[in-house]
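Lab channel / #folding
Pinned by the channel admin:
"Please post every new chain as: sequence first, then the structure tokens as a reply. Keep commentary short and put observations after the output so the thread stays searchable."

First post following the new format, from NK:
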Amino acid sequence: MATLKEHDHCYAMAGNLETNTVKYREGRSPQTASRRSRELTQSQCARLHTTGVLVRAVHTTRLYIDVRDDQWPIVYCSDYNISFLGLEKLHPFDAGKWGRVIEFLKKAGMVRDDTLVVPVEASEEDLRVVHSSGYLSSLKLTSIVEGITEWSITVAGITEVPPVALLPNFIVQRKVLRPLRFQTGGTILAAKLAVERGWALNVGGGFHHCSADKGGGFCAYADITLALRFLFDRVEGIAKAMIVDLDAHQGNGHERDFMNDERVYIMDVFNRGIYPHDGFAKRAIRKKVELEHFTDDREYLHKVHKHLEEALVEFTPDILLYNAGTDILDGDPLGCLSISPQGIIERDQIVFEKARARGIPILMVTSGGYQRATARIIADSILNLQELKLISCDEAEQSHSSSSVLESNKLGALPRSRSESLVSRLRSCVSHSSTSQDLNKEDERYSVDKPDSLNDKG
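Reply from TO:
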């Protein structure tokens, strides 16, 4: 069980640093760092020891809630889903996929409402662990006409839906940003659950284009950075983390946040020809794999397997945060890759096998995916992980079995084997592969006859 650090009232930002370099790990200038340190002092969130070590108070948060043993470490609530006057349809992002993932899992008999973990909305104080006050203020009101500050220009840019700029901000807060704050709280909580249970899954989150000071690409809050900062500050034994970003797009947000931070190793596999083209952020990637348009299953899975194995040899994290975007799916209008549904399921399996075989806690977030088919693929992938025993929750499964027997008895029918029906359905969409206990067979499975392309930047 992860425990809060003994002295959770404060933490050292960096050893024996001058005040004006406290934010050096984020790539900030001394002037920006000095401004940030003054901001902390004014809000009584920092104090300077006589040794010159800047220490910031760890605020009291409601995000780390208690979770029952009979609940899956799967975080979700209906507040994740975005719907505002139909304007969400102007962006290809599927703003309701999270709820459909859960519906598929319920129909498969894996989860019920009472065996899911419901997160708390991230507060402004929670968000300020990473985000500047200026950035958070820009999400509220923006003046485009002198004296009128009722517009949502910043949010319109982040969501890439221009009409949002003309909506009153209170509507944007409730219909767009509030769901994203719930998902952000979900990622932060799921990271702690991963440490406690060995694995966890936030059905939302994965806002990998957002950094401390800037949002973009439908990402308003830096949930990945926040989740790791919360762990570093509050959870004993978590000092190093690996981000494995397998969304089709480069994860430039967390890359900018962890620039030059030796605690965080970033592996990013992305299509080099699409948004965001952030050359500066690429400097933070320790294992960079750039793909060409229309990369297929065979080449993709080989590269994921090969480079993840190398990354885990180079760096041993205390937690692995897996950004499992499904915009790699063939036909995705923004990802421009050619990965099949079976390929996505196999990809997720590779990552979980490698983490679980090494005893590394793993947190999965779902990130991008711009086709309605992705909800079913995510659900099928989760069911595959369960069937292979890469994820489990004995208490939740026993609770479900007991409930199924009672319900069947009420109906006068014999209980049907859930695992039997699950295996039958999964066989139709994915061929089971070997487990991580046989790494030699695993190497053969993902090998290709040709060498890596010249674009492989590992």
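NK: Residues 169-197 form the longest helix (29 residues).
TO: also worth noting, The mean pLDDT is 80.
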